[in-house]
Amino acid sequence: MMKKQGISKEPGYSWISMRGEVHKFYAGDQQHPQRNKIYTMLEELMMNIKSPFV
Question: Does the pTM exceed 0.90?
Fold first, then answer.
């Protein structure tokens, strides 16, 4: 429907700070040069959120 009307949506993105550097990446981004480190850090954050008493 959006294509028919000539409307496009900007993709969602996130920012993360690692060692004083800010990195911007898009959902499902496989092109970012630091993607492995970013996704590893996000997994660690998610584990901490799910287990706050560990």
Answer: no
